[in-house]
Amino acid sequence: MRKIYSTLAALAFVAGMFAQTQDSLLRRQMELERDFNPTLMDANKITSLPMLREPAVQKANTNYSTWAGRAIPPLEIALPRPGDIMTAIPYSTDKGYITFHAGNYANLDGALGYRILDDKRNQLAFTFNHNSTNGDIRYVQETDPGDNKAFTMDNIGGLNYRHLADAFALDMQLSYLHSMFNYYGNSFGEERFFNNENQRLGVMNARVAVESSATDALNFNGFIDFKNFSSKYGETLSSEGIKGNQVHAMAGFAWPFQEGDSKVGVDGSILSTLYQGDLNNYFLVNGAPYILLGGANWHARLGADVLFQNARNTQVRVVPNADVRWGVTDHSSLYAKVHGGYHPNTFLDMMEESRYILPLGNVRPSFSYVDLEAGVKIGEVSGFRFDFFGGFSKTDDAHFLVLNGNDPTSGDTPGPFIEALKPVYGDLSHSFVGGMVHTNVWAPLDFSLRLKKNFYDVADLVINEETIADARAYNKAGVEVDARATLDLVENLKLSLGYYFAGDRWTRFEGADIEMDAINDLNVGAIYSITDAFSLNVKVNNLLSQKYDIWYGHPAQGLNASGGFTFTF
User: The domain spanning residue 402 has which CATH number?
Assistant: First the structure.
């Protein structure tokens, strides 16, 4: 009997220890879940409404990296950066974040964000971003042996509010951008128009957007976006710069039918610019009816845009607007999309492309008869994903940016803006082919490579009222290579590598075509997480210390490095 009692006691003890072990393990697992922060909003300003929900291709799961090769050079003197690799703020349950980086060339980069309100119905966040540089650069052309100061400073602050109701979502944003910069372009020994004067640009942006919840009845979405802007210097140092207002509004309605995501709808939009200066005002109205159809492995959006605009001459035009995707197999799909229409090329659009354009403007819209892209995506073949693509577009009044130099700014009137860029216009036919591969066969390594070959045909390009024979697509790359890799091999340490190449670039300067040096930028980065809330990072751009122009006469920085931290709280 004692043996029985002893055995029972031992079993009870073992069971108790086992239960305690299970309970301990359970507690540790629960604690791990509580410490895991699944997401924190990147607190960036929302610039557009979500697109209409389109039928998903069920059979083909061929997702790829979302980045794409650059179509134009980066606009900032401090760029190309390391492709913003490893600098994004991860989503966290913490309410705020601070990030700061500093490096040579007096490069400073910082951001602050805080969620003032965050519940099931309402989110309110404040964000502030700073980016500046003030370093000496050396011209590629070496006509001036001395160094030149390249200065930019951008500050943007904003409030973002989102309200989720039962029937709709409401988004409201308010922001202000204050930008200062100097025209640092090569003057080739001539007297500069801007010596120590810094151009200033201010943009106030207010936006309200709404989108209904998806229902079987009528669905709607829309927004109104208002911008007020002004620059300091105009045609002379004593004249005011370009000022004005820009309004962009859109409203869309969709009616589901049958089962699934099939629907018929119409979108309407208005874009208007009102300038205070010599620029022509612009007005564009767009009506876009469409139908969405979809099945288990395909979907199609078929529609057209009916356009009315009053730039230069009043015109009404109709262009296609279609998007078709077909999942051929479980891991492959075909896609094609065709569009067209006006590109307003407003003053703010041009300043976003390059802030160094002539301060007296000279902007006008372009029109694309057709803009076609098609390709095939192949996914998960021995751990690799592929995307092979090609396309064609034909555009009237396409713009190209060239250095003004000693050329007149308009007509036969000589202009003093030697160091600034000016837009010139011509008709452009553009075709391209390319491919992309993405793999993470080895779990710690994520790698993407994108190749693109561009073919250009330019006609009727006019510079200073002279049509240029055998004109090229100035400042547009003929060949592009973009590679990115991240390595997560050591705990809490992530490494990154990026490489961008842009070759076959041409410009026109003082009556002659000039081949520009290729952009050849290798960059590396690393981030080390000390705690869940604090991390250190470092990045190095132009690791090969290459000399090249972003725009002709506007060189990029040489080897530049920066380090900093990210803190969530």
Answer: 2.40.170.20
